[in-house]
Amino acid sequence: MNLSDADLDFDDLDRDEWAIRDEEVRRYVEQTTNSVASLVRSTIGPNTLEKLVETHDRQNEPETVLTGDADEILAAIERGDGFNDPVAAFFVDAVDSMQRALSDGTGTAVVLADALVRRGLDLIDDGVHPNVVVTGYALAASRAGSVLDDLVRPCKPTDRRMLRRVAATSMTADITGEVRARYADQVAEAVASLAEATDGEWLNTDDIDVLATTESEPAFHRGVVVRRRPNPLEEDEDAHVEFDWEPAFEGTLKDAGIVIMDDEVSFERTATPTAETQVSSPGELERERDERVHHHRKFAEGLADLGVEVLVSQDDVEDSMQSALTQAGIVVVDRARYPKSNVYRLARATGATVVSHVEDVTDEVVGTAGQVHEVVHEDEKWTLFDECDGSVFTLIVPVELDASASRRERLVSDAVEVAAVAAIDRQILPGAGAPAAAVMHDLRRSTPGSGRERLAVEAFADALEDFLTVLARNAGLEPLDAIPRIRTAFADGTHAAVGLNLETGRPQNPWDAEVVEPRRVFSQALETARSIAEQLLTIDAVLHPGVEFSGFVPEAEHE
């Protein structure tokens, strides 16, 4: 297969060809990485553009996704037709693991990886061996770590002011002004409170839940919101059973005892059926009913004796059991299965222990909530367990439109994850492109390595400049003006950290502008990009995506 760079079109490749090699594979890798990067390049910086993706949701139903978030774009494509190209699939899978760990930096990693691959392939075309490029990139990445060490500042896990800055920076691309500041305050309070409860050793962000609604003011609760909604049968116009929208109790319960069950309220281990208790006559039916009512009443009275005021159940609680509990003054919150993890978060918040059978209910499994009250929010019924002793928090974030609720929940949840990374690592960097600019300047000032390795180090610095160019262009700036100004600022030594003011195009000190990010976000993006480039630059053959292995029969060398 002899194709020149000018007429190489991989869409027209003969699918009978099972592999491409050498120069063709390099062009194939370059085209593929650029295609993936083009999907998310416009998500870099605060002035992002959105993509409209026709895909499928997690239930495999058709879905249209409008988003400017790099991870959402890639995830939507994977849920749809996916990345059938092997290089693209590898590329996206590599950055996906980073997103799951950090909830940030996907776009940065993709754009940097594309630039490193492109710059590395240029060197290989000029005769530099791929292994030399990989070695030079490793030297540059090692030097980058030292540069970031000098740039980093400490961040205490309970420093609300600094965590607020981190959260606000992570949300810059989607919202601005007072709304962003309000969300950042809530995130900082939740993360700092979680750190205070754990001495900052480890932060389980699963214990910080975010709920967006158009019917509420911003709120920070130490506790859990148990959400319930009608099932499909109850929403049907012809349904015989309707969802109970009426509150289970009036007002607010104070210092309420809580019992949590993850199974139905059953008495099978107590009332063991025998052949004699099988219902075969009206009399036996009456006796069986009386026995069930007796067990229900006895259970309800036992709960009341333990000081229980609220029974939470993942399953439905039958009417006769509800009646007995109500008569005993106990509120029933059943069908608490959305999401399923909420009952376990509630247990951690209240100090309760989740049990599966009525015989397991003792005073040792009872928890306490400082306040409990119910409200109806849009199409859900909320029971709020607040002022709990456990380190479990719920953020209520107001939105203007129902359609934007899920996106805002994800946005604020990602900000929680990013702020938690800063609190756990206790290290932050200046934002606004300052880490990339600092590493770029250092590599060009004192290029490590020798011989051809130095060429690879310089290519690494050029890739970082490519990233800054994307950042400037997305802000509507002229890169030919903005990038030289950064170089001049380093030469003048006017700033300890040099970032790009995306409004004026002039250099700025991001510390002064309060634009900061966890050190690990940029460090991991850089390392992920380097690792991807290392593996893609050393490929010398790619099996064509259309090959059918079942139809491939190797020829024997000797008959």
Protein model, in words:
The structure is a single chain. By secondary structure, the chain is an alpha+beta fold. The protein folds into 2 domains: 10-153 and 429-543, GroEL-like equatorial domain (GROEL, domain 1), CATH 1.10.560.10; 231-372, 3-Layer(bba) Sandwich (GroEL). Helices cover 47% and strands 16% of the residues. It contains 17 helices and 18 strands. The protein has helices at 22-40, 70-79, 86-102, 106-125, 130-151, 160-170, 177-198, 232-235, 282-305, 319-327, 342-350, 405-425, 434-445, 452-474, 479-492, 510-513, 519-537, and strands spanning 19-21, 51-56, 62-67, 153-154, 208-213, 219-221, 224-228, 253-261, 308-313, 331-333, 367-377, 380-386, 393-398, 427-430, 499-500, 507-508, 516-518, 541-543. The strands form 6 sheets. The protein has a 6-stranded mixed beta sheet with strand order 7-12-11-8-9-10. A 3-stranded antiparallel beta sheet has the order 4-14-17. A 3-stranded mixed beta sheet has the order 5-13-6, covered by helices on one side. Helix 1 runs antiparallel to helix 4 (106-125) and helix 5 (130-151) packs antiparallel against helix 17. The longest helix is centred in the middle third of the chain and has 24 residues, at 282-305. The chain is elongated.
